[in-house]
Amino acid sequence: MNQHPRHETPGPLPVRDDVSAQQLRLMSSLVVLIGIGLFLALPFVLSIGSVVFLPLVTAVLLTILLSPLADHLARLGLPNVFASLLALLVFLGVVLLALALILQPALDLFDQIPEISGRVGQRFEELRDEFRWLAIANAELAKLMGDTGTSRVVLATPSLLEEIAFATPSVVVELLIMMLMAFFMIEARVRMRRHLLFDRESFGSSVKAARAMREVQDKVAAYIMTVGMINTGVGVIVAVGAWALGVDAPIMWGGLAMILNFVPYIGPMAMFALLALFGIGTAETVWLGMIPALAYLGLNAVEGNVITPSILGARFTMSPVMILIALSYFTWIWGVPGALLSVPILLTLTALFDHIGRPNLIGFVFGEPLFKGDVSHRGREEEQVPVK
Hints:
By secondary structure, this protein is mainly alpha-helical. The chain has helices at about 15-50, 50-75, 80-110, 115-130, 130-145, 160-185, 190-200, 205-245, 250-260, 265-280, 285-290, 290-310, 320-335, 335-355, 360-365, 375-385.
């Protein structure tokens, strides 16, 4: 019988594979170095150009947050321009109402600051008398170490009112730019969606762009709205508790608790410190003054460890280390506004990386591909397909 010659499968090309793997690793190394350089240089660029970049980033986040409301208003029959404007006005109304609830009582308490400061100093004097033995031991230890004391030079700095007066024009300009950017971005959301969906060369990229845009918008908007409702509940509980304990201006304390709770970790710590100082300065003893602060600490422990995780669930779970890095990073760049924007920015980037692909930095150090499902592996699989 005649036997047909066998067509053997050509084996892989090890030299070619090695060269392509080396080229890919070199390109990945360049990408990592460029990314590190951008991460280190970005704070200086964003800080110097904060007048431009801070309103822009805030406007983008407001567009993500308010686009669902504008879409709902447009479905009710309102023109797109009016729907966008009304969504922005609703947001401004909520913010101004929250600030009014806080600022008006705060201005009333402003005149009491010297008296409260004097009482706080008096309470600490009492505590220092109770722990005088510790100060004596510290002085004796300083003598043994040969510390003769140092002189301090106090530099004159602008007062709080002077700093506010200098900062007000810049803040007003940034707010106006942010509102205008947010309005035009919300108004252009339909055209932007059409551009992302229909101006792509392939159907697959259009589907990926649509999914990424929807995921980012839904995730960020749902997170901000959910956290906003939780923080509103915290503010109401704090206001009721402050009223029950006889603390002055309970609505102000509730509003402060609501706003500061948007800043992870740092905000509750600042609220605890404010309640402790105010309580110590107004109560008869230190321990009575600490009751409101300790009650808030218990409430925050329950909210942060039980209520918020059970409501948000795994969909919004983020590493506490990444939250702290984002918090310190954007606070360093933009101060208090950066602290408020840090978690929404982190959530937006996380949602984008879920679609684009997260770099495998730790695995890359040990020789793994920078991105999972690397093109080099797909190329090798295609080369090893048997030839029929």
